[in-house]
Amino acid sequence: MNKSIPILTPLRGIAAICVAFFHARLVIFPQWKDTLIEYTHFLENSYLWVDLFFILSGFVIMHVYQNTFFKGINFYNWSKFIGLRFSRIYPLFLVTLLVLVAWETFKYMANIGFYGGALFDGWGMSGIPAFHGPFNRGDALIPNIMMLQGVLEKDLSWNISSWSLSVEWLSYMVFPFLVPVLMQKKVSLAIPVLFIISLVAINSHHGSLDITGGVLAYLRALSSFALGTWMCTITLSEKTKERINSDMLLLVIFLMCIYALHLPALPFNDVFIIIVFALLVFISAQQQQRNSVIFKLFENKVTQFLGDISYSLYLWHAVILLVGIEIINLLLPQQLVLWHLQISWIPAIVGGFFYMAVVLVISTFSYYYLEKPAMRGLRQFFQRSEMITQ
Length: 390
Description:
By secondary structure, this protein is mostly helical. Helix content is about 75%, strand content about 0%.
């Protein structure tokens, strides 16, 4: 495979947007939530796009780093790998966390309680003092700073999207030790079986895969991550590659994902969705650059850009929702009440476009002026430190 794999980056953008609307349906669009379910469960099931992230990460990291750990693991190559991953995910995560802490500090000083929209208000959760709310809890701050909230906290905290970063970060820790195992073909065949068994077990225990804290959350992430790494080791014949490199197959598997997400939350339907996601990643990774209409629908400048900013989009949309709804409630409380009384689809569509426009603008700025510079700066620091120690 080439260093750059077509379509996989655009898939990240699609997944990030779907997760952004999954959270928004509770905060700024709650009045349409039940009505939309009458037509489709797509948004209700969109928490599963996070599992696509896990699969993608496993596949891409295996693609890039398998040669690094194939011959053996030592502290030097393990720590260098961890440093590179840390520089990729931690700086922007810390910035979003600090923004939330700053906002919560302002609320504390101004004696402003929690407000999360009409749905949370109906649940009796409005007015909770600062640092004691459902998300921005003072006792969850240290686990978040250490990026261990995904296993140490049972409930979502602070940047509600970041639980997945925590468990993915822990998956990075064990990745180098997976490589030698996965390169042994006979042993590696057990990975997809263990993956399915793990997800079925989580589903049986929890009732669904929508679990975002504790050991099971880590198992959920590690299972999908390991599946992604395993898929990257699959060797195909040239004839099979030619058959898979197909517009029709790519379109069919993508539509299968959309249809599976559309279905109600039947028993183990979420496990089926993740398996289809895995097929989508694998099929997408086999596609070669071409000028066909279907391929260009997936791989073009717009989808590539959305994929590039997907990490910023994934982290900032939660901050925009949590802080934005409270600011609007402070400045325009009557207008917010009127908004929540709207039930026409036209305001919902207009509001959805406006929400995504704000998220995209902030995410674009973040990508170019925060995410990339911070990553470069931290990696240069690690390189200088490495030279000094040598």
